[in-house]
Each structure stands twice: as structure tokens, then as C-alpha cells.
Amino acid sequence: MRFLQRKNLLAGLATLALLSGSMTLPAEAAGEVAPSYEVQVEYLHGCTFKKRDIDLYNVHVFKPYRQVHALTMSYGLTLERALGKAWGYEGPQVRDSQAVGVGPAYMLRYTRAMNPRWDVSLEGTGSVLLYNQDHPGGGRRYGFLWRIGPRFTYHAGKRDSVSLGYLFHHSSNGMKHHNPGYNGAGVSLGYTHHY
Description:
Layout: H1 2-20, E1 30-31, E2 36-46, E3 52-68, E4 71-87, E5 94-96, E6 99-113, E7 118-135, E8 140-155, E9 160-172, E10 182-194
């Protein structure tokens, strides 16, 4: 389990390092982005830990605030509904891991245009969540949600676009104790409106 956590952490750090390398470009290349909001709705299935059966149903709202060439930075809010159970953490008992979490989120997205209508991007997001109860069972009332993966975007017009992403996630509270973290993957649907 520790190997998978380290592997995911290293993959996330490598991706953020790759993306942040774009931020060292000349200052004149940086600028604000056109006002817009993006809403993402997703289902993430817990699939890599044997003793975690937790699915996430999330809604994210992001507002881009800065762009440096192909790298867009956004801030927003995450609402998470977790359903499932965890067992084998600090004992053999099965622990209910249903919870509702909410908190601030941040996203980095590196985008390349395929043609005038289609974009492909790699995005990484982090959310800090407060839960209505300990999550997962045996955990704490707060946690982090890390997501990374590709996204394909179709621009339906000058103001609206829809997207489909496949994201990997890691959820944990970052502590050494009471931290039954879990990983998973799933599909994300997005809608963006420029005003």
C-alpha cells in the first residue's frame, strides 16, 4: 500500500513539475483569461486498494483567473458525496465510509488545440475537503482529493464548450495515523460558459 501511495505521489509531483515549468516563460506571455465558469460532474470508482470500496460522486465549479501560454490556472469549489465502506484499517471491522464533503479547489490545465473545435488537455487538481463525519471510516473529518488525467473539449460555439475527461484520484488526509487513504479512477463531464 505504501508503494502505491509513493508511486501516486511521485506521479503527481512529476506532473505538477512538468506543468509548472511552463510558468517560467516571459512575463508578457502571461495574462488574464476571458471571464468564464466551468462545471464538472464526475463519478470516481475506488479501484486500487483491496480493502476500500468507496465511490465518489463529485461536482466541481472552477473559475479560470490566469493563463501562461497553454497553462491555465483556476480556483473553485468541490462538493463530494462518498458512498461505500472500508475495512481492515486498524482492525478487521467494516466501517461505513459514507460522507459529504465540501471545500476549496485549485486546478492547473495544460491545453493544446487539435483543430478549431477540439482541444486536448492534461489537468491536475487539488481540493481540501471538510466532511460531515470521519471519512473514510477510521479517518478524520477533513481530507484532500487529488485528481489528474486527460480531458477532451469540444467548442460548440464562441461561448460554450463541453468536455469529457478520464481522471485518476487519490483521497487521504495526509497524516501518518487515522489515514485510510484510497485511490480510484473515473469519468468527468464538463461544461464551460464564457460571458
